[in-house]
Amino acid sequence: VHRIGVFTSGGDAPGMNAAIRSVVRTSLHMGIECVGIRRGYHGLINGDFVPLDFDSVSGLSRRGGTMLYSARSEDFKSKQGLERAEATCKLLGLDALVGIGGDGTFRGLLTLAQKGLSVIGIPGTIDNDIACSTYTIGFDTACNTALESIDKLRDTMLSHERCSVVEVMGRHAGHVALNVGVACGATVVLVPEKEVDYEEDVMEPIRRARLAGRTHFMIIVAEGVEGGAYGVAQKIHEATALDTRVTVLGHVQRGGAPTVRDRIAATYMGYEAVRLLAEGKDCRVVAMQGESYVDYDITEALAMQKGLDQQTYTVMRVLTGV
Ligand code: ATP
């Protein structure tokens, strides 16, 4: 491998910058050049790039977002789009690509691998919903950001007899909701993976908390739960007459300086990606299993399934008294 192209794609996540920095510096250490592709596959099609050296990634670890910008590109999925992406790689002399993103990003890498390019994927998404990896870059920061907001919300809500319904990110996966819910001591946590029995899962825990003397109730809802936070709040109000207040945390959860955990995971994964390429391996996804860094064939990785963490779910049910 002589020259690597690195890009971020799909939704951005805190720690992506630390991964870029790591890819660049590890490459240079191994005598490999690095080119940053801006705006994911959109930039690959349009030749939107920036050469990266040791100094150009200096101080990047602590910055949220991604210096290479991120994008989604429908054009890339077409035959012509793929040909244009291939042409950019030829023009710039890129023999390998490192893509940081989610499953969609890995699917894109697979199509480029079929054209003969060496590709490596790094899991970067705040949702922690990549099946082959127990951890994805950005998850810890997103959970901490949500938790900080919820703690503040609780301070103000404690003075009133109210029910806070907070919507956190997670259209298809409840990992953020579950972890944040356990960490903040929520009354109820709702995730898209489990069908909601309102009487048993929501109203009864609220009633029991009230009977135990609580006057404030914290309900954490993943955005993918049917009806979202507003729908859930409406149902609670109808059943209990409680004054419900909805807070949708939204994109603040994607921002901010990455936590130690995200900086370290991103740095190791960036290092691993280049190490694999330097050893002649390709078409792999760098992943974590427990505290270890491992790698999987992309096709194999995409075929894997990840459910909700049952252990955390059980702990949540016990602690919320369901
Ligand atoms: P997130 O977890 O934030 O959604 P993601 O990487 O899964 O991240 P997607 O929007 O699904 O985000 O994918 C990013 C880009 O990857 C798409 O805009 C598209 O250019 C490319 N891509 C996705 N699926 C495919 C596919 N089946 N074939 C080729 N390219 C794809």
TrEMBL record:
Binding site for ADP: R21, S22, V23, V24, R25, R154
Signal peptide span: none
Residues covered by the Phosphofructokinase domain: 3-277
Source organism superkingdom: Bacteria
Function: Catalyzes the phosphorylation of D-fructose 6-phosphate to fructose 1,6-bisphosphate by ATP, the first committing step of glycolysis.
Presence of the UniProt keyword Transit peptide in the record: no
Classification via Gene3D superfamilies: 3.40.50.450, Phosphofructokinase domain
Active site (catalytic residues): D127 (proton acceptor)
Keyword Transmembrane: no
Name used for this protein in its record: ATP-dependent 6-phosphofructokinase
Residues holding Mg(2+): D103
One Pfam assignment: PFK
InterPro entries in UniProt: ATP_PFK, ATP_PFK_prok-type, PFKA_ATP_prok, Phosphofructokinase_CS, Phosphofructokinase_dom, PKF_sf
Inhibition and activation profile: Allosterically activated by ADP and other diphosphonucleosides, and allosterically inhibited by phosphoenolpyruvate.
Family statement: Belongs to the phosphofructokinase type A (PFKA) family. ATP-dependent PFK group I subfamily. Prokaryotic clade 'B1' sub-subfamily.
Binding site for substrate: T125, I126, D127, R162, M169, G170, R171, E223, R245, H251, V252, Q253, R254
NCBIfam families in the cross-refs: PRK03202.1
EC class: transferase
The protein's required cofactors: Mg(2+)
Keywords: Allosteric enzyme, ATP-binding, Cytoplasm, Glycolysis, Kinase, Magnesium, Metal-binding, Nucleotide-binding, Transferase
Source organism (scientific name): Flavonifractor hominis
Catalysed reactions, semicolon-separated: beta-D-fructose 6-phosphate + ATP = beta-D-fructose 1,6-bisphosphate + ADP + H(+)
Positions of ATP binding: G11, R72, S73, G102, D103, G104, T105
An example molecular function term from Gene Ontology annotations: 6-phosphofructokinase activity
Subunit structure: Homotetramer.
HAMAP family on file: Phosphofructokinase_I_B1
Name of the coding gene: pfkA
